[in-house]
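Revision sheet: structure tokens.
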Amino acid sequence: MATPPLTPRMLTPTTLSPLGSPRATKKSSTATVMPEITLEQPSSKTSKSPAGSKSTKLFRRVRSAFRSLPIMSPMCKLPMGGGRLHENHVHGGTRVTGTLFGYRKTRVNLAVQENPRSLPILLLELAIPTGKLLQDLGVGLVRIALECEKKPSEKTKIVDEPIWALYCNGKKSGYGVKREATEEDLVVMQMLHAVSMGAGVLPVTSGGGGGGGGGEGDLTYMRAHFERVIGSRDSETYYMMNPDGNSGPELSIFFVRV
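Predicted:
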């Protein structure tokens, strides 16, 4: 008989890597049962070229350098009177699913999917603590700008750049890094495959004896619909949309080459 799909409440114990990515606990006295990954390939997915392996190596080198960077704690607050998005659709936009997740004191991850049942088309690590970002989202609108250098005859898609300078509401807040989804990332997405919108905590057991998951707390997530708007080859924006159009957290993420 087929095993029923897991829900967030059925999440098995996990811990996070230094960058905030979930990984299975190795010190557990019992074997951890990992869910079967049934996420679908996104429609925009194309076969990888031989250069793909070089890109992966570049991502790994950038990630290793990113590990040594400090976690910034910006004051992500928007002055009163700023414009707010109140509509459930942006003209010219494409609806996607966005998930913020991570332990409260580690760097936040952003996964973008075509829908909750598809593989991520974009996965970012931002040098902002998960708890700080989610706290500020509960206060008001947050604007994140990711900037990288514009090069002559640029052919790389802007969201395929490996690293960006990160600004939160105009304040320099470290860097954002694109990386490939790991098996552990896919487990989190699989756990949330039935969730279209919402926020909550994925429970983990305390690390027995020191460190591990117990030192980080529970895995926090927030999932919402985003509108993806492509302005040009050098600009792309993701707008978090409110279900009721009036209240709740709002987030805008701008990718730009300058």
